[in-house]
Amino acid sequence: MQAPAGTLYRGREGMWSWVAHRVTGVLIFFFLFAHVLDTALVRVSPDSYNRIMDTYKTPLVNLMEVGLVGAVLFHALNGIRVMLIDFWAKGTRYQKQMTYVVVAVLLLVMVPATYRMTAHTFAALFGSTT
Amino acid sequence: MTAVTETQQDRLVIEAPRTRKKRPSQSGRGTNFEMYAWIFMRMSGLLLVFLVLGHLSIMLLLDGGVQRINFGFVAGRWASPFWRTWDLMQLWLAQLHGTNGLRVIINDYAERDGTRFWLKMLLYTSSFLVLVLGTLVIFTFDPDLAG
Ligand code: HEM
Fold first, then answer.
1. Among A52, A89, A18, A53, which Cα is nearest to B64's?
2. By C-alpha distance, which of A31, A71, A82, A29 is closest to B39?
3. Nearest by CB to B102, which of A26, A76, A79?
4. Which of A67, B20, B108, B123 has its CA 20 to 30 A from that of A33?
5. pLDDT digit string (tens) for B11-57?
6. Fold of A14-124
7. Residue B92 alpha carbon to ligand 1 centre in Å
8. What is the pLDDT of residue B1?
């Protein structure tokens, strides 16, 4: 079905990137809440801070960090796309192409980033102890 | 059946984008709060690109990533005013940006006046506490806690 003309946010790329922008924004906001609390433990004692940091190094949380980086990177890249739509004269005309650039850059960065972030976890789980 | 007067009719219509008005704000409270909020989302977003992506790269990608983070690592970083300033700006910009984002989302989905009001009170209270706590932690950090 064809979306009516001039509705950037109805259907297809424009709408879905808006949905994803909203979902990632909320996700990051709740993580920030937890993150300020866990960092506050540096004021309690080195030991309690180190213990919370140890949970960040476990395989499951490590995987969630990959998700967090992906969410932040999408939100940042799409945020730039939103600003280009607002301020660049040709922004609305290229909004669809810019969505594909956002997704392409996201994937291009996330592949090596995921490798780097999880290498230690994979080595600890499956690798030899070197 | 009541006749719809012209002024009532005006209210029912969503005006075309970029219609010129004296006051862009819908609230009628006589301020341009919504416009400043809109601009703030874009300016803070632009700064957060560098602050947050830099933060994530340093903490999770470079040099051993999350595995090397502990109390001593934090003490080393916060010995420098540069990183304390970085983290303070990041805290305030991200928290305010996120709070305004959630305010918009609550306005979008919470239809009952009471629900909307209390959700926003909860949001503002928790944001205030996060900002105070985070700021205090950065300013009062004590590396000698390690003994
Ligand atoms: C990394 C750089 C970031 C950029 C470039 C960015 C950009 C933006 C922009 C331009 C908007 C406004 C969208 C609109 O008015 O249509 C927005 C909304 C939002 N942002 Fe960010 N942002 C960033 C980081 C963050 C962070 C760290 C958080 C969480 C604390 C966050 C949470 C939100 C939320 C909750 C919204 C509202 C979404 C909505 O109304 O649908 N953003 N962002």
1. A53
2. A82
3. A26
4. B108
5. 566 778 777 766 555 555 668 999 999 999 999 999 999 999 999 99
6. 3 helical TM bundles of succinate and fumarate reductases (1.20.1300)
7. 14
8. 41
Inter-axis angle of helices A12-40 and A59-87, nearest 10: 130
A86-105 as b/e, with b when 16 or more CB fall inside 10 Å?
eeeeebeeebeebbeebbee
pLDDT tens string B117-137: 999 999 999 999 999 999 999
CA distance B54 to B49: 8
Instruction: Specify the residue for token string 């789980």.
Output: A125
Distances (CA, A) of B134 to A64, B19, B69, B138: 23, 42, 18, 6
Tell the residue number behind the tokens 């005309």, with chain if given: A93
Give the residue extent of every domain in chain A: 14-124
Q: What is the mean pLDDT of residues A53-60?
A: 94
Left, alpha or beta for B57 (phi > 0: left; psi -120 to 50: alpha)? alpha
Query: Quick one: closest CA in A to B141, which residue?
Result: A43
